[in-house]
Fold these 2 entries.
Entry 1:
Amino acid sequence: MEAEKVHCPSPDGDLLGIVSGLGQILVMTHDWDLLYENALEEDQPDGGVDVREPTLSSTNTSMSSVSWRGDGKYFVTLSQLSNCSSLQKRLRVWERESGALHATSDSKAFMGAVLEWMPSGAKIAAVYDRRAENECPEIVFYERNGLVRSSFRINAPVDATVELLKWNCSSDLLASVVRCDKYDTVKVWFFSNNHWYLKQEIRYPRQDGVRFMWDPIKPLELICWTLEGQITVYNFSWITAVTDNSIALVVDESKILVTPLSLSLMPPPLHLFSLKFPSAVRDVASYFKNSKNFVAAFLSDGGFCVVELPQSDTWEELEGKEIHVEACISETVFGTLAHLTWLDSHLLLAVSHYGFTHSNYISQRLLGEDGRHGFYLQEIEIACLEDHVPGSVTSSGWHAKVSYINYLEQEIIGIAPNPAKKCSAFVQFDGGKISEYTSALGLAIIGGTTENEVTSFSSSCPWMSVVLVGNSGPLKHLLFGLDDIGRLHFGGKILCNNCSSFSFYSNLVDQVITHLILATKQDFLLIVDIDDILHGEVESKYENFVHTGNRRKEENMNFIHIWERGAKIIGVLHGDDAAVIIQTTRGNLECIYPRKLVLASIVNALIQVRFRDALLMVRRHRIDFNIIVDHCGWQAFLRLASEFVKQAEVVQAQDFRGFDANNKVYSVLLAIRKALEEQVPKSPARELCILTTLARSDPPALEEALKRIKGIRELELLGSNDPGRISYPSAEEALKHLLWLSDSEAVFEAALGLYDLHLAAIVALNSQRDPKEFLPYLQELECMPRLIMRYNIDLRLHRFENALKHIISAGDAYYSDCMNLLQKNPQLFPLGLQLITDPAKRMQVLEAWGDHLSDKKCFEDAATTYLCCSSLEKALKAYRACGHWSGVLTVAGLLKLEKDAVMQLAHELCEELQALGKPGEAAKIALEYCGDVNGGISLLISARDWEEALRVAFKYMQEDLISDVNNASLEGANALIGEYEEGLEKVGKYLTRYLAVRQRRLLLAAKLQLEDRPVNDLEDDTASEASSNFSGMSAYTTGTTRVGSAASVSSSVTSKARDSRRQRNRGKIRPGSPGEEIALVEHLKGMCLTDGAKHELRSLLISLLMLGEEDIARKLQRVAESFQLSQIAAVKLAEDTISTDIINDQDILWSTTYRKQELIHKI
């Protein structure tokens, strides 16, 4: 039976790797079945089995070791070479399934049998023995292929040995036991940005023989035990050491790396300077307030150090330096300190524990006769025995003593200073309970007041912060806590369930917090207003911090996607910087400028009238410049324009070009321009600013800008040595600036508009246009007479009024060009009549204007224009084209036409008016000009002008004419009676249908309400299902009345046209449609009598009375009155019921009564 040297089970527990005393590796199952057996070294004698007695090292009982990869597919062995008596060893990587050798490393001097494969499988950790080189041990990392990836030295004494190496379950922390002459240490390293940081060093007495293990599921829990049976569990947590003024402190063994992130975003291990302490740093606290900069550190050897730093604006002198810090002088023993927190510039608060083997024994003098082991809350008072020199570092001469001590019966999770109260802090106990601590008074009673109960957390929160807020009132503190599972606690409730890190931002000088910034586990950065938290609007505005892709753009300002998974918030740049600093898992630092914070900082600067700072932020972050004007309203900005110019004087001129064109730009830029001219001394920069305001005006004042440039150019051409000349930029610079701000084509046209061809050529050249494009045109203009040149330029620029003035001023030789311009631009005719004084030419202009109006179908205006120029023939045609028969006959009189010609013209007009549907006007022509009495009366009857027809018939006292009027009146009355009766029936049907639909809808709505269903569930087809009693009513058909005479036919046609017109206006009513109820009401309203119908009814009734037809007149009046009253009553009932959703029995009663009256009327 071979002696076992070392064994190691696989991660899944199915296999067991055993190294025998004969140098064999055996892999067995959990049933002790041997899968395979291999020799660790290939050159072993006698067929691979070394039968010699193994030689054990004095430092380790086992010279071989086994470690499995996290997934169990490979395992690695470390064994000594069989033919070598030195410490030369070799790593071998084996495959799980076959036992085949996968890779072998080079032989090296390894220390002991320390071997650990990272659970993630990326690295294999081992230790090099460097004692032969008089150097400390070195931890080396191998890859699966047996090649070295990296290494680092542990900075221990040369004779130190590494006894144990262990990775935590998340593979981000590496712990080891390092044995020295006087003590053993447990060291914990962290890898980031290609650098290994020693984050913790815990010292034990050498005789304790300390060992440890990581918790298999909690990556930050370390379990240590000693030979005496003492077990200590360490629960680590990552604390971001970034101060309120964005100074980062990074612990690296015995150093603290200091970097002001507001000056330079240097990722660790890069730093501005470092603080060197006598031993490794275990806890650190910083105090950067009120022009005081202190850093306190507790060391692994039990020492306590304090250093005072100068103001951060003088830190450039410390770049690259390493400042050595001495331990404080103290007459008392502090114990092992944790949760080190500053209460004031001379007072600290910490948790100290005594009585453990890794702690200093408590002073009996301090505790008295009742001294006992355990945890204590103690105040540490510090004082400097040396005089502090301003601008220098004070790293020695500090004295510390314990001024107050309080025994703790519960475990403390964290301590946070109270910013609202001096020398006060909030202490969090296990379970999340919060108690307030005040210097020299001790702890307040937990749960003693309502306030304490509210501020407690529902679970332990390793990350706790206390901030000041001011909600338009006195300042108060708020407590926030983040637990291990990502729940952010506030005010006794859970604010967010998926938070990974959080911080706070303040845009105010007094550091009053305005925004909460948090990162979620889904890698989203959220900006939360403190006011929303105080007012309880977080859930409604941020939807439990779960981002959805269908949000609108303005809502996405609250959600920023972090592009690298697992990044954490480490700090914030407050005030105008408005930045969030995150650290990726690789260790790099990234700076994000959330748009919401940037806008808040800009608004804050505008409220404080810091225009220059706001302008710089707008430019830096590419924000719309209109925010500067629109924040308080552009009218208010006009009053502050002088202050804006005063502050923006040092800013570049092109800052003003960001304002977009809209209706307020002219006023704003005019105010800025006036302030520039009044307050800012003359300089090239001022002139460029003025040009900018002109170019960005709405519309752009390019001509005025070019006039200023032209003035500068004239000064240059004069060669004047005037000292004021240096107050202006060169003409070329000013022109290029204008071209940069504006469209080059618009500037070229503006130069042409000044009629300065030389300036236009300079503009074209500076805009880099091809000379072939503009030189021929400019040369052609230069050869023209002055007025003609301006005329052509105005035509190019579409300035037609100026072109007309110039062409008229050029003389009669260009009269044809003037007429062409007027005909192409008819809007110029009024101006042309004002400018042209020659009567003959005025007549030509008027006739051309009339021709244009005729072409545009404005015949009446054209006829008037023709009359002005005595063109009577064209005036006659124009009047006839628009149907103005009186104008036609009047112009015929002016033309002095013969009687036969006038008679013929009258007959033609009469026929045309009949075709146009104007029988009344045709009747006047027939009676007055044609002498056709019979035709005139027929036309009056067709026009339904009964009184006029009867008057003409009695005028000529012809019985046949009177009889025709009598018969037509009777037929028209009968037709109207039929229409009114039909309308009365329709009113009843429409109203009955309306009441039925309304009743059905309300009943269904009430039924749904009783079933607790929303009314929206009411389907359209269900709502329109009325009672079957109404299915036979054809409420949506239009009836007609047929009579025999020509007059009644005309009446019927008119009635049809009127009904169809009403139907089109009301729209179609579809039974069962959602809008049927409203459409029925509108249909009832449209059935009222129009003014034309009332006039026709009145005329017909008077005619019937004159003709002695009193009975038919009375019947017509009664039917018309009944229809009118019924329609008015139906509309009033519908309007009264449509505004309420209550079923009224009066509605049903009215409908039943109305139907009974309808039956009686029919009988």
Entry 2:
Amino acid sequence: MAGGGGGKKMRMRFSKLYTFGGRFKGTQSLRSSDQEQLLGGKGFSRVVFCNQTERHAVKPYKYRNNYVSTTKYNVLTFLPKALFEQFRRVANLYFLLAAALALTPVSPYSAASLIAPLVFVVGVSMCKEALEDWRRFRQDNEINSRKVKVHVKEGRFESKPWKKLSVGDIVRVEKDNFFPADLVLLSSSYPDGVCYVETMNLDGETNLKLKRALERTAVVDEEAEFGSFHAHIKCEDPNPNLYTFVGNLEYGEEILSLGPEQVLLRDSKLRNTTHVFGVVIFTGHETKVMQNATDPPSKRSRIERKMDSIIYFLFAVLVLISVIGSIAFGVRTKLYSPSWWYLRPDQTTIYYDPKRPGLAGLLHLITALILYGYLIPISLYVSIELVKVLQARFINNDLAMYDPETDKPAHARTSNLNEELGQVDTILSDKTGTLTCNQMEFIKCSIAGLAYGRSVTEVERATARRLGKDHLHMLQYDDSVMTPVDPGSPPDSVVAGSVGGSGIELATIGHHHHPLAPKPPPHVKGFNLKDERLMNGQWIHEPNVECIRLFFQILAVCHTAIPEVDEVTGKVTYEAESPDEAAFVVAAREFGFEFVKRTQTSVFVKEPAVGPSSGVEWTLREYKILNLLEFNSTRKRMSVVVRDEAGRILVMCKGADSIIYDRLGKEGKGFWEATKEHLAKYGDAGLRTLAIAYRQLEESEYTDWNQVFVKAKTTIGANRDELLEQAAERIEQDLFLLGATAVEDKLQKGVPETIDRLAKAGLKLWVLTGDKQETAINIGFACSLLRQGMQQLIISLDSADVKAAEDSGDKVQISKVSRASVEEQIASALRQIAQDADSDASHALIIDGKSLMYALEDGMKKQLLDLAVQCASVICCRVSPKQKAQITKLVKEGTGKTTLGIGDGANDVGMIQEADIGVGISGVEGMQAVMASDFSISQFRFLERLLIVHGHWCYKRIALMICYFFYKNITFGLTLFYFEALTSFSGQTAYNDWYMSLFNVFFTSLPVIALGVFEQDVSSRVCLQFPAVYQQGPQNMFFRWGRILGWMINGVYSSLVVFFLVMGSFGLAAFQKNGQGAGLEEVGAVMYTCIVWVVNVQVAFALSYFTVIQHAVIWGSVALWYLFLVIYGYINPVYSTTAYKVFIETLAPAPMFWLITILVAVACVLPYTVYQAYQRMFHPMDHHVIQEIHYMQKHITDPKMYKREKRKAVQKTKIGFSARVDANLSMQRAKNRYYDPTFTADVKSLRDPPASNVDLFESPLFSSFKRTV
């Protein structure tokens, strides 16, 4: 039957299917006394006039419009907010003050020379901010301009953009469209007003939720009927609670109670329903999803914030030397000014008045503060901005992060945080759509004690690659039998199988088909089981054929899926509440049991006839649905009671293995031991498992039970759920176990390898998901965040005390008991970790959203963080978007380390914005996460390269660039101070004005920009081979105060060498051929030339990676200085002043000029060179060793040394498939030694065999494993 047929033609009422757990409870015409007291009070004052939007045009019923904005600025706030952002930078604030003082007579420079650079720097930065925010605005506009049908008048509906919606509007939403605002469901295309809703963007769950309209409004399901529809809604005020809603609908003379079942939230999607009608209750930023969002934050990197401290330090130095100079000037003015006849002391100004030396010194202080301003480089910020933009372009154009399937590259949405990518300590990740593909595949099963399915999971592939890397010969898995591989087979085609039963089950990875071999069947979405024993009807030749038949029948019948037939192709697809359920139905079809039709009371399955003698004969069988007991997180199982065509009454049940086991009869456990072993292997392979069981009932037994069940179902009262649970327990007993299913929650490509590499790089990964606990744990195993042997510390509110408090209904008591329970569980977990401190035990923290409500309170969150940071893995399940942001803030502020939030849905926006770095996955569902992010990628696997390669490079580049920038400005600025001291602090500068103006613009700017854009200490390939090098960033090894001060000391040393060697050389002999000494023009030009050479040679020595561009800009900058001297020297001396023909006439002909230049350059860089040589020789850093390995080809000439260093370049980790392999191999080694005392081989050799080409199959290790098998 079609999932969304039109209106009255659809007779199937879904409310009849769901009879358990109070999904639809009794009548809704009465409101509870509690709800009646709430409405109208504080927080519950909203009134909505349905179909009367004109009444919402005036207060007090005027509410916000539906326009949504995620931008940082608007037209009115851009100028003040952007200026505030710019002048948060201390250097900009200093130069603003200097520019103001430049308007006074005390300035040594013209006002234009100081104001113009400031305006340029601030203007460029503001333009960059405006451009980035404009892009956000365009993305917002795309969403705000989406269309939806809105009732206008007299039953007519017209399309309007989302932003035009108002509270009270009646809208019609079509299938597979997003809801434009928060709506109350009035009716749907189904007669009983139900609809399916996908909430993945809100809570990360891919399973569909059933929503149901009130019975009173469900009949209003034609457009024309809404012309006369009027009602009032009184409900709660806007709030971020996704799972609660309190309200009443006043329709006619009736007052009907509204709950979360009637609310359709913005950014959730309508599925499996042709259309719904709803009334808008919350719009725009008042919707629940936007209430969970936070304002776009202004993020600054740690390096940029530390730059402020450096600026403060340099400003203190500037003030100090200015004060020293001013005091000296005041003293000399008082003592010596009367004898300076050439200054006319009898007619002097206040600047040189010996009678007022204090005032003269104070005015000189202002002059000195401006004069020595070159210590604080104003061009630093604009250079960094330019470098970051170019770095972002490299990220955007990196083909290794381009996804051809979606045609989406990586995108740096802001360039302010490039270097922060290299300092990440903790990654907080969403699950659905980020780690997983939202696709379930039926991949293995166990039936009647036999395991079926040879397909390989992502976890097994990743483990196989890891084990196979260092093997010359591999093992092939074939149902737990190890066979040698043909040495001539492709190296990546096969990988090892079960290593001595350790649970590391590996199988064929590559698929190398012979040209003449038949092509494999096309892939079926949701099904990937490869086993010829079950396919194509071959299961009828297997032992226990009736068990297999029943197993397949349960898969085809025990569900709530709906078949949809494509009218064009005739192909049947299934819409199910969960992807697992859809995978089961598809699997049943592939096995020959095709679910084709559902009616109000029956399920029809096309299945093969009983006997195989006459070939395959298909028949359509009807299973009458007598009762359905649906799955929920408390029951952890689902059952249907059916009557087949033979008249048998069967209870078909599927659920968690622990739950099913407790309900097996004595005769139903025959296959339990074998099934249990298979379940353990499936779990280790990262698969989601369910046990399958059944029971046959006698007619009288069913009749008696059904009377109890119907009575419980029709009960109206607080104990209804309890009575239904008791009835279910009564029927779900004495079950017979048939087997188990294993479904792979399809991980995104490369997720296990990425997590493993990130773990090796020393990064921590927390998973924050809205999924239920069981799903989160399964994904934890699939991603190798969890593994067998890891102790799970589960914090939840499932204790008996909490349930008793909840049954009492006393909210104060519930809160008190819950808080005490969470506190005790955290304390107990901390004690357990303390007890295991001396062992190699690893722990995983798993906590749900209800527990987090209390754990995140001020009195408890510190203990929660202490517990979490001591665990190898942290998984938070059933968390709301707000809680994701709260957890992120806790980690960020509590640890003081850099956090990265990554997700793909609207429910991840708060987390992405709260984290130091937000990464959005540009997936198939919505763009909210991308719009709120700092960086976007199309697949989680690209995060590895974004961090380990680009993050490492950007951090090293920016850190080195800033240190070098301060070095060169200190070198240049202090020579001004020395010359001032030499000239009695008179305010005379050593250099021509244009020399000073162009120092940071032309002669030293391009080399430092090239350093920031192109420098690579190691290549991208090496970064990924030696991931521990990444830790240089989180440990901040290149921007510590020690390193910064080291560069500053180098600058001080260089300035001293430049000044005193130049001035000393001029005092030794005549500078020109005619015997004349050097004047101010020659001194300034020579000193400046030496500085240009020194700072450019220094940057050349600081680089690790040279390209043609680096050579061009470094030596080109030096050449540009000489060219400038020549050209500028020919300009009229009115403009060129001290530079007039100074190079042609005096400098170039003087040998001393060239000698001094060489001598000073060598003397300045010599200490740095000696230090670098000493460090590389005796105290090498990681990248020094790696550089030596690759430049000297050690991976070829000395492979043992190469492997040793490669192992050292991996952080010790307890997560990732490498840790899983290590743990399994350790257990295997212990197991073999226990059972076989002669086993002495080191299992480590399995991963790192000797360099010689020894055949693995002839080794004692392999022989010992064969003995074990």
